[in-house]
Amino acid sequence: MSEPDPAAFHDRNARYRARVFAERARLRDALADPAAHQRKVLQDLLDFNAGTRFGAAHGFRRIRSLDDFRKAVPIHAYADLQPWIERAAAGEADVLSADPPAVWFTSSGSTGAHKKIPVTPGFVRHTFLPFYFAAWAPLLEHFPEVLDRPDAVLNLKHDPLAAPPTLADGRPHVGASQVDFGERFGEPLAAEPGSFAPWATLPVPLAADDHEGKMYARLRLAVESDVRLVIGINPAMVAALPFQLRLWWPRLLRDIRDGTVDGVPARDPNPRRAAELEKAARRAGVPRPAVVWPRMRALFCWTTGMASLYLPRLREEYGTAVTALPAPVAASEGPVGTALDRHPTAGSPVLTASVLEFADADEDIRPETPTWDVQQLDTGHDYHVVFSHIGGLYRYAVGDVVRVVDRVDGVPRLEYAGRATRSDAAGERLRDAQVIRALGGAAAAGGLAVRNAACRVEPDPGTGRPGYRFALAPAGPWSEDELHRFGARLDEELRQGSAGYREAREARLAPARVTLLDGDAFDRDWLAAVAEGTRPTQVKDRLFRQDSRQWDRLTAPGHAPADRGE
Predict the structure, then answer these.
(1) Long-range contacts of residues 77-81, Cβ cutoff 8 Å, at least 24 apart
(2) Tens digit of each residue's pLDDT (9 = 90 or more) over 139-170
(3) What's the whole-model pTM score?
């Protein structure tokens, strides 16, 4: 996307800000009467899609209430809807939505398999854009200067494609960050912050699947600029950037000095900036983001889940005064909540976008599982998310778990707690959220800090019983005594946080064991996954790692990956 002239850029920013604040105001207004807005969303999707194959099969014309809807439509996982989705993807009309999909979002899901998510004009207009714009309101309200210049924002997820892959219906199958909403949906304002940066369009040819090469090229150009905001959404991307700076530092300085990207001429040589950066890094001892961009103001990414363990130390890498603002509680399939103020983790439910239902996260979610609406949720509890929207997903269990942190004006606020995936070797039925809370509690009890963690089930060397082995990257050195005490505390925290783990530990499950890795282990593993061809947005923190190849790659003795530029 080419950079506009200054007058056009500032005019666009004024219109963008007005749209962002207007959408937030609409979402806030809806909180005054959640039930009425949820009824309207349901009636709109029933009316619009009553004539579809799915609507006819499930009696949409006869449904009058949410209770009717629950009786007529079972809860669906992606696999349940997949036959319908494949028919639409093959070009059949009126399958799930009366609107034909204009784009298909791709989502890796918890298994790594690429889903096909229909993206219709109605979905974009009624479900996607309202929360998408409103999500930026706290940032623009409190840090307006981040949009003053095109090169003030490093958007790590922005990855436009000149020739996107398509499905059988001829529509693109891409990530949400790869969609041109102006071209596809007539919404040019939807181009998010960072879309007009000098590195939005790379000056050197790189293959579409050369994700590591594109990451390096964008970072190399960004280190010449005064970046104030980093957008990652996926916090693993934000956490990996300091490691990339250290790994690629000599290569970056050489390219800046010579005006090249990996030796290919790309812009004017800038020996002054190279010398300035080299001096600053030498003075600080390490080339961290706070050194490269001393006027950094904010990070925008998910702040819960695994990120809750490492975000405090990660913020120090970017600058002690940097604010971390939470990205929306959302998936490619649709939104759940978005922060309307500066709460560090939680957002208000997006009541105008989808019919939202919730189920007890301690129970397996099934087609007939009882659900509650948002007003029936209890503070401090975890819930599965089920939503339905006009784009063709009905009572869809997205596989995410949310936690109610408080209520504002009587309406619950939600934070992302983790994936619904369970680990169950001996009846313990552990969820992400339970293990992450246990890790955080065990670390806090000993005054320790964690950079990242993963676990798998292995036979205990002494008893042969299955037990959890944790691989953990500490922030700073731990003594043998601290490690021993941490392991004992972690096992106790798991007992306290999970009745299933507590019961299994009585006879069937061995105590948790902890192995310390070096501090960069997870960053190396993340970069290795990208180098193997996975888009950076889809390389997320994964707590449960039973795949032996992936576990061995993570826990291999530390060594820096080969730098192809050296």
Answers:
(1) 77/396, 77/397, 77/399, 78/109, 78/115, 78/396, 78/399, 80/367, 81/393, 81/394, 81/396
(2) 999 999 999 999 999 999 988 887 888 999 89
(3) 0.94
